[in-house]
């Protein structure tokens, strides 16, 4: 059932200009007819001429809107100078109400154009269907029978222009919830490596659980790739790396490792390189983003270590890749564990806890309970030390000087970090990143 209706009057073709009020009236009338059964929110999108807040299509349409008292409180006009700005504003209002099923009523000539904007600004969480503005007249036309996923038909130059318009608009948005903050380890020498762990502030993501510097997009979340890309651009500017030479692990919660310059696996939780200027990254939203640096052989790596990856030894797999590929000496490799869920908050079923108890009983608290507390950081350290990494070359929350601690509990600090454990399925993601300076 339709949850929202978007009426696109942003750029009406010349042959419809004289009847724009009539077209809007017919569309709203059809929506109002359905209101006795279902009351969708209605958004009317129109163009605001540059340098004016009231002139343009808006002044001609307001009288029509006033005539539909039955839609009062659910009818919203959004005027902006670009389609990207108008549609992104509407997306925010949809997200505020947690709406996902949208009927778009628009001129036929705008359909392919609108699909490109939607493909870039929305994810698969949303379901769209389209209706011709000239033929909408009853409730039947306002239903959604099945999702429409037709292929792109716009010429590539037109698509490129739309992408650029979206990019420019997102770049113009202010940062939310404070300045962009990067945590750095004193263990990794900053004359050789550029590195850090992100926090959740300083980006443009606005959904509460994703706000504001979310750095991961998926088909199950509401933050589109273009927003994540803009957050990454801002991070790159602040940190000093090239976002075009940025490589993030393809999470599989296992122990495969990608060697930069060799055939890339389909999925991997570790990645290593000895190439200068290439930034490696691992995500974390409770799982541990782990960074590796060898200042002698000038090689580095990153790994994503959740409870499954920890048990499978992803950190030592990443270390072993550095040793075998770049001739690193185990005693030279530095390892830093980033923000991740701590043993104060993280629970697993008893069967899974048994595996951590085998590593060391100190990795489990309240072992006899149905859901013991698990210390995946301690388990990671133990496995690294057993593999040959020197204890003093590992930085985690066991540091003596807590002013040097960067391995905060993500679940305990909602103002600083994202947490899947705390926030549920529509959660944001921070990263750990590292590169060898040119």
UniProtKB/TrEMBL annotation:
Keywords: Acetylation, Cytoplasm, Endoplasmic reticulum, Hydrolase, Immunity, Inflammatory response, Innate immunity, Metal-binding, Nucleus, Peroxisome, Phosphoprotein, Transferase, Zinc. GO terms for molecular function: copper ion binding; hydrolase activity; S-methyl-5-thioadenosine phosphorylase activity. Its EC number is 2.4.2.1, 2.4.2.28, 3.5.4.4. PANTHER family: PURINE NUCLEOSIDE PHOSPHORYLASE LACC1, UNCHARACTERIZED PROTEIN YFIH. This is Purine nucleoside phosphorylase LACC1. It comes from the Eukaryota. Pfam families: Cu-oxidase_4. It is found in: Cytoplasm; Endoplasmic reticulum; Nucleus; Peroxisome. The gene is Lacc1. The keyword Coiled coil does not apply. It catalyses: S-methyl-5'-thioadenosine + phosphate = 5-(methylsulfanyl)-alpha-D-ribose 1-phosphate + adenine; guanosine + phosphate = alpha-D-ribose 1-phosphate + guanine; adenosine + H2O + H(+) = inosine + NH4(+); adenosine + phosphate = alpha-D-ribose 1-phosphate + adenine. GO terms for biological process: inflammatory response; innate immune response; regulation of defense response. GO terms for cellular component: endoplasmic reticulum; nucleus; peroxisome. Interacts with FASN. Interacts with SDHA. Interacts with ATF6, EIF2AK3 and ERN1. Belongs to the purine nucleoside phosphorylase YfiH/LACC1 family. The keyword Transferase applies. SUPFAM superfamilies: CNF1/YfiH-like putative cysteine hydrolases.
């Amino acid at each position: 059932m339709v949850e929202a209706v978007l009426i696109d009057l942003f750029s009406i073709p010349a042959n419809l200009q004289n009847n724009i009020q009539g077209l809007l009236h017919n569309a709203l009338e059809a929506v109002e007819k359905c209101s006795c059964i279902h009351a969708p929110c209605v958004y009317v999108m129109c163009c605001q001429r540059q340098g004016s807040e009231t002139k343009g299509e808006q002044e001609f349409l307001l009288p029509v809107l006033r005539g539909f008292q039955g839609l009062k409180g659910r009818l919203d006009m959004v005027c902006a100078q670009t389609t990207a700005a108008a549609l992104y504003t509407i997306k925010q209002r949809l997200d505020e109400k947690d709406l996902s099923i949208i009927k778009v009523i628009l001129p036929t000539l705008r359909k392919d154009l609108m699909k490109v904007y939607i493909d870039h600004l929305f994810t698969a969480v949303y379901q769209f269907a389209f209706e011709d503005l000239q033929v909408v007249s009853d409730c039947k036309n306002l239903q959604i029978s099945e999702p429409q996923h037709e292929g792109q038909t716009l010429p590539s130059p037109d698509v490129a222009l739309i992408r650029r318009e979206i990019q420019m608009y997102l770049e113009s948005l202010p940062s939310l919830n404070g300045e962009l903050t990067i945590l750095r380890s004193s263990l990794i020498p900053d004359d050789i490596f550029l590195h850090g762990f992100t926090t959740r502030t300083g980006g443009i993501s606005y959904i509460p659980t994703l706000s504001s510097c979310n750095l991961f997009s998926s088909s199950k979340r509401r933050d589109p790739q273009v927003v994540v890309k803009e957050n990454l651009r801002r991070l790159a500017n602040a940190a000093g790396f090239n976002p075009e030479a940025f490589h993030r692990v393809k999470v599989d919660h296992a122990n495969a490792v990608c060697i930069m310059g060799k055939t890339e696996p389909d999925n991997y939780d570790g990645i290593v390189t000895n190439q200068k200027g290439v930034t490696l990254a691992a995500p974390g939203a409770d799982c541990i983003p782990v960074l590796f640096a060898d200042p002698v052989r000038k090689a580095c790596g990153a790994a994503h270590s959740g409870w499954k990856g920890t048990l499978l030894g992803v950190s030592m797999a990443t270390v072993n890749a550095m040793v075998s590929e770049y001739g690193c000496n185990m005693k030279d490799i530095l390892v830093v564990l980033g923000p991740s869920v701590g043993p104060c908050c993280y629970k697993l079923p008893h069967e899974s806890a048994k595996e951590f108890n085998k590593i060391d009983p100190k990795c489990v608290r309240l072992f006899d309970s149905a859901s013991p507390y698990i210390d995946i950081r301690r388990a990671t350290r133990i496995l690294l030390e057993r593999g040959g990494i020197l204890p003093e070359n590992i930085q985690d929350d066991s540091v003596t000087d807590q002013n040097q601690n960067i391995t905060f509990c993500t679940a305990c600090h909602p103002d600083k970090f994202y947490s899947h454990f705390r926030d549920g399925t529509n959660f944001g993601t921070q990263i750990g990143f590292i590169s060898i300076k040119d």
